[in-house]
Amino acid sequence: MSSGWTYDAFSAPWWPFAFILLAGWLPTDAWRWLGVASAGRIDEKSPTIALARAIATSLVAAVIARLVLFADGSLQQIPIPVRIAALALGFLAYLKLGRHTLVAILVAEIVLLGVPWALGII
Amino acid sequence: MTTDTTEADERTTAYWILRGMRQVLSAPALILITAHLGFAGLAREAGIGWLEASFMVFTIWALPANLILLGAVSAGLSLAAAAFAVGLSSLRLMPMVIALLPDLKGPRTRPLTLYLLSHFIAVTAWVVALDRLPDIPRDRRTTFFAGFAVTLTVINTLAVAIAFNLMGQLPALVTGALAFFTPVYFLTSLYGSARDMTGRLALFTGMLAVPLGNWLAPSFDILIAGIVGGVAAYAIGRARSARAA
Predict the structure, then answer these.
(1) What is the full DSSP assignment across B63-77?
(2) B1 lies in a domain?
(3) For residue B229, is it within any domain?
(4) Same domain, B103 and B163
(5) Alpha carbon distance B171, B208 (integer Å)
(6) CB of B161 within 8 Å of any CB in chain A?
(7) Domain residues for A9?
(8) Contact across the interface for B221 and A22, Cβ inside 8 Å
(9) Which residues of A touch B180 (CB under 8 A)?
(10) What ipTM was reported for this prediction?
């Protein structure tokens, strides 16, 4: 898996940009162009589109969970239960306090930094 | 509704571009900038350069795809595997474009204009456009959308470039705290924009499937969790609506 054309495979300065275009830009804009091409021809409410949307949503959800569970860098200092609690309580605040994303971010950060600080971890 | 008024046609193109640009000060657009500050933090933690991170933001212009690409780069995935994971996550843009186009298109809009503008359609621009476009005269909508969405993309690209470089002077924990903005932003904005039970359910099944995916194949955990979680949410959603009917 780490063999072949990875992001770090070649030392040429243009390679990371080529990797970003081929692995990121092309497979993203291709769907946008397909959307333009098929607008008015595909029923937005068809079962195939609904399944595609569910998988796409779950993929982003998996990204969310991965950011919290397997964080890189300095977030690793903060225990996993605290990170999970920060996300859960932020979401709860969103649901209970008028559905504002900024409120959710504020509550999550208070838990994320406040609990380790009170415990003397950070 | 002020749609299709003749009086509106007398206002200049510059007026509609500026009116679109003003939407960058709307709440969803400002929150997106915060989420991109988080992305700058994540890119830094993953060891990617500031120019590469900004290039990703402008060319891909879909934060979930960028996060998946970032994860693929840190996991050392091959070009093909990374493109496959990004392609699966960006699939969600196709139904979004299909849903937005009838509102965006004017009677004389050229297809090339739509192909070029489609690059700037992502979750935030979509939410704002669906909300604002009905109040804009139909033949001015692409101008308005270009003013808004292109500005939003450029501002976020610059925000990542600047934040990435400023973070070098901040304590490491600040970068981590900023990086945490992103998961909270996505969870709440996707929950808020989900149209049905299946959409909301897919958020939770996708998160719960990550430990399973990670146990099966750590490099492919996002792909596995996305497919397993999405199919499960779709099946449960169908079963429930069948019972309700």
Answers:
(1) HHHHHHHHHHHHHT-
(2) no
(3) yes
(4) yes
(5) 32
(6) no
(7) 1-42
(8) no
(9) 67, 75, 83, 86, 108-109, 112
(10) 0.84
Cβ within 8 Å, pair A21-B229: no
Rounded to the nearest integer, the mean pLDDT of chain A is 90
Q: Do A64 and B186 touch (CB under 8 A)?
A: yes
Domain carrying residue B57: 7-82+90-192
Whether the Cβ atoms of residue B145 and residue B20 lie closer than 8 Å to each other: yes
Chain B contact set for A60 (CB, 8 A)? 64, 89, 92, 186, 190, 203, 206, 226
Answer yes or no: are the C-beta atoms of B20 and B148 closer than 8 Å: yes
Please spell the DSSP secondary structure of B201-221, one letter per residue. HHHHHHHHTHHHHHHH-GGGH
Tally the domains of chain A: 2
| Region class of B148: left (phi > 0), else alpha (psi between -120 and 50), else beta | alpha
Examine residue B109 and state whether it is found in any structural domain, yes or no: yes
Q: Tens of pLDDT along B9-50? A: 678 999 999 999 999 988 778 888 888 988 998 898 888 999
H helices present in chain B, as ranges: 13-22, 27-46, 50-60, 63-75, 79-90, 93-104, 111-118, 123-132, 141-166, 172-179, 181-193, 197-208, 210-216, 221-244
> What's the token pair of residue A4?
């072949």
Name the pLDDT band for A52 (thresholds 50, 70, 90).
confident
**Four-point Cα dihedral B214, A68, B149, A33, nearest 10:** 10
Examine residue B172 and state whether it is found in any structural domain, yes or no.
yes
For B242, the token pair is: 């069948």
Residue A64 sits at the vertex; the CA angle it makes with A88 and A118, to the nearest 5 degrees, is 45
Half-sphere exposure of B195 (CA within 13 A, CB side): 9
State the pTM of this model: 0.80
d(CA B170, CA B175): 7
